[in-house]
């Protein structure tokens, strides 16, 4: 029940503050479900347009559902959370794709690693869109990570929504 309540509060706050990315001077906010080995959670991203095809942003993720280790231990808060700075190259208009579609490769620098991501957004209207993204570490700060240290240091798949109020 606690997890469900926390998820509903986070989603409500995220939906109330969400905006879709459009280019220079605009802000995009996504809420996605994070799926990875041994855990799943929720992820918030906010990207700020610095040019027609470039954005910088921040990402915060929290793993809600995590497998226990072999001894029955659950991860602590610091094992579940990750925060990253992001850079995206928004290429939807470069590839001359429909203006409702945005494809964006990017780099991120976080608490646990330096990584890359590839995402795509499709906007059904000016105010609502879907987003999907994959991410993976390029350089881990602790290459010999074991146990819960590996949670935010692996390939991730994310799917969710973008909103523009």
From TrEMBL:
Signal peptide: 1-18
Keyword field contains Signal: yes
Highest taxon in the source lineage: Bacteria
Pfam families: DUF6646
Protein name: OmpA family outer membrane protein
Signal listed as a keyword: yes
Keywords: Signal
Taxonomic lineage: Bacteria, Pseudomonadati, Bacteroidota, Flavobacteriia, Flavobacteriales
InterPro entries: DUF6646
